[in-house]
Amino acid sequence: MPYQEHHMIKVDRESGEIHSIIMNGETLDTDDGETWFLPKGLIGEIAVNDLPDDAVFEICSRIENSVVMLDTVPIRLQRIGDNRVRLDFDDSGTRKYWDGTIGFKPYMEAKKSIVEERASEVGDVSLESYDDDGAWIHLEYSAQVDAEKLVTAVQLAEQIAAEIDGAAEMRLGVELWAPKTVENEREFTLGIVLPILRKLGFQNVKYNHGKREFGRDIVFARITEFKELEFWGAQVKFGDIAGGVDADIAMLLSQLDDAFKMPFYDLYTKQKQRISKLAIIISGKFTENAIEKICEKIESHAVRNNVLFIDGEKLQTLAEQFRSPA
Predict the structure, then answer these.
(1) What residue segments make up the domains of the chain, in order of their start?
(2) What is the pTM for the complete model shown?
(3) If you average pLDDT over every residue of the chain, what do you get?
(4) Is the pLDDT at 94 greater than 90, yes or no?
(5) Do 171 and 199 form a contact (C-beta atoms < 8 A)?
(6) Among 99, 118, 142, 322, which residue has the fewest nearby CB atoms (within 10 Å)?
């Protein structure tokens, strides 16, 4: 049985057709021999260029007793070139099982509008189809992204899906701080902060949370009045920041220092860049003179003048200006 093997992925073929795919020692499941279910735990350090270009992978959280468990809308991924993948999102559902605080139809129509606007304004997604048969609503959209590692492509896919959801909820006026809507820093960043940054006109918005974030959970840019790119960063926290907690203040100051000193590689300009401004964005409040205490400990006046503090109340105010009229 001929096969191709690249490090942690092995593809067995029969008469040119894929017979099986083994990833990091585990054989992937498939229903039709064309789409293969890929649990995120098997992705590891696999390179995008090691993926076969004639296979589609559907990302899932895990598989239990032959049941595919999803933690987002169904996302399919296929390599279409050198370090480049196509992402397909199948955001479908039925009115019968909908229990949202707003109607299913206006919610899905809002998502459709967000995809269309993003396709026009940013150009990184495309609306493939939208169909409402009275019971089910099918929304399909796609994107093409550059990534060297498969894990990066999956993270970008999840970021896009979460941003679409968050932007739709913001447009409909869903209470941003509802406990069931946002439960942790990642959901707060993807579902609320990133959509607001895009609506404010920032470009090249990228969620950067990980070991090499260097004080920047998000990097983004804007075109200045002089028609040049100005790079920003954001440090995001879920909850309050209290001036009376010395450890929290010390950690923020360390992250702030790293954010300005450490360059980052910008995927869009293909160059190393440094940020000019840093926003500290939190879902709660700055209490016990936290802002004053942080500013007092920033030695450089240039740095101090380029740090912004944005709390949950300010975010709510920003979000409200993007809400659709009733």
Answers:
(1) 1-174, 182-326
(2) 0.81
(3) 88
(4) no
(5) no
(6) 99
Query: 56 — phi, psi (to 5°)?
Result: -110, 135
**Separation between Cα atoms, residue 124 and residue 144, nearest integer Å:** 7
Question: Scanning the structure block, which residue is given the tokens 């992925």?
Answer: 9
CB 291 within 8 A of CB 256: no
- Of 36, 276, 75, the closest CA to residue 157 belongs to 75
Quote the tokens at residue 89.
Answer: 């999102």
What DSSP assignment string belongs to 252-292?
Answer: HHHHHHHHHHS-EEETTTTEEE--SEEEEEESS-EETTHHH
User: CA 301, CA 76: separation in Å to the nearest integer?
Assistant: 48
The CATH topology of domain 182-326 is: Restriction Endonuclease (3.40.91)
Q: What does the chain come to in residues?
A: 326
Q: How far apart are CA 234 and CA 303, in angstroms?
A: 14
User: β-pairing, 56-60 with 35-39?
Assistant: parallel
Bridge-based pairing state of the strands 286-287 and 277-282: unpaired
- The residues pairing with 64 across neighbouring beta strands, listed in sequence order, are 67
Taking residues 77-85, what's their average pLDDT? Answer: 96
The contacts of residue 252 (CB under 8 Å, 6+ apart) are: 235, 241, 280, 294
